[in-house]
Amino acid sequence: MTASERRLPASAYTDSERFEQERELVRRAPQLVGYRSELPTPGSYCTKTVMDVPVLMTRGSDGQVRAFQNVCAHRAAPVAQGCGEAERFVCPFHAWTYDNLGRYVGGPGREGFPTALTPGAGLTELPAAEYAGFLWVGLRPQDGPLDIASHLGELGPELASWNVGSWSSVGEKSLDAPINWKLALDTFAENYHFATVHRDTFGSFARSNCALFDAYGPHHRLVFPLRNITDIADQPEDSWQPLNHLVVIYALFPNIVLSCTVANGEVFRVYPGQTPGQSITYHQNATPMDLTDEAMRIGAGEIFDYAHISVRDEDYKLAAEIQRALASGARPELVFGRNEPGLHHRHGAVDAALGAAPGV
Ligand SMILES: [Fe+2]
After folding, report:
1. How far does the centroid of ligand 1 lie from the alpha carbon of residue 237, in Å?
2. Ranges of CATH 2.102.10.10 domains, the chain
3. How remote is the CA of residue 71 from the centroid of ligand 1, in Å?
4. How far apart are CA 56 and CA 54, in angstroms?
5. What is the rounded distance in angstroms from the CA atom of residue 186 to the CA atom of residue 319?
């Protein structure tokens, strides 16, 4: 419980000027974009979309992870699709070809480009890192190397300890939603709503309105107990396996949520859209199961679908109605309870980063 309630103006979710500042805040932040296991070997690659920017990530023969704008230096077409293994990336438009260090290595009609194709021509490289088992990029080419260790602080070793980044990626789904990016993130910042919004899904196996909260600078951690946690009350404490009875949610400032259990490591990458009332969420899941086994692969896919559909049809569906109500001006503010510390903390951290007047 926090010491008191907190009131937030509805305009925090609807104001255009504020929204532009927040977009810039997200654009400048180091971005967790996936699992280390998405680039398993030298020569592997994957593609991502981050704040609308197409990104190509590669692992070179030196084992290094690199990131590039997935944008051809000629006419801006994407040079790679999906993920896999490739030494060369051939633009589908005019066959300009790049290696996995982003360098232009050939293509037809070279005499047409006496200045564009001087030595050094290639894809625009972005800052990239592999840290705590996850892949990270920076969207601004001019920024220096990413210092994710400083960004995460003491959460870094804890995230690494889950080993989620080495689990098998089950896939990536997107939700283009008519909700402010912070309203999307708010749905992951309390379990007060489990018994109502998720009565027939998460609420059937996770407790409602009972959580452990810890802040780590601008990041936070919420620990949600499962209903089965009461089963161990009468058993000796040294026999407890706490992680079998918990969901641990990490909110990584400003726009990433990790939801970890012993069986699933979900990533939600939530990006501001083009207007205050739009956002896009990329949802990924990783599993410790062996996905070379077909039955395991089908099972993991079903678990991912279940989680995704619950977020889409329960949280985000309701959030869209909330966004419409906020934009209507019907009520000037909303209130976060003492039992919703994650909401207090997230909005406080965004306010602090923007130097904005805090909600009271
Ligand atoms: Fe929810």
Report:
1. 31
2. 31-146
3. 36
4. 7
5. 9
β-bridge mates for residue 256, sequence order: 252, 269
Give CA angle at 136 (135, 140), nearest 5°.
150
Q: How far, CA to CA in Å, does 318 sit from each of 150, 197, 323?
A: 36, 8, 9
> Could you tell me the CA-to-CA distances from 263 to 97, 285, 292 in Å, in that order?
41, 10, 17
Q: Does domain 1-29+153-360 have CATH number 3.10.180.10?
A: no
DSSP 103: B
| CA 267 to ligand 1 center in whole angstroms | 15
- Please, is 2 exposed, middle or buried when counting C-beta atoms within 10 Å of its C-beta (0-12, 13-18, 19+)? middle
Question: What is the number of alpha carbons within 13 Å of residue 333 lying toward its C-beta?
Answer: 10
The Å distance, Cα 9 to ligand 1 centre, comes to 22
Query: Boundaries of CATH 3.90.380.10 in the chain?
Result: 1-29+153-360
181 Cα: distance to centroid of ligand 1 (angstroms): 15
**Which residues sit opposite 271 in a β-bridge?**
280
Structural tokens at position 82:
């999906």
Q: What is the dihedral of CA 80, 86, 89, 90, to 10 degrees?
A: -100
User: Hey, which CATH number is domain 31-146, 3.40.1190.10, 3.40.50.11240, 2.102.10.10, 3.30.450.20?
Assistant: 2.102.10.10
Residues in CB range of 326: below 8 A, 6 or more apart? 10, 13, 14, 180, 183, 334
Q: How far from 273 is each of 52, 178, 188, 328, CA to CA, in Å?
A: 8, 9, 19, 19
Residue where the block lists tokens 């589908």: 92
Ligand 1 centroid, distance to 160 Cα (angstroms): 25
At 34-60, the pLDDT tens digits run 999 999 999 999 999 999 999 999 999
- What's the predicted TM-score (pTM) here? 0.96
C-beta atoms surrounding 75 within 10 Å: 10
The β-bridge partners of 129 are 136
pLDDT digits (tens, 9 = 90+) for 90-139: 999 999 999 999 999 999 999 999 999 998 999 999 999 999 999 999 99
CB 222 within 8 A of CB 259: no
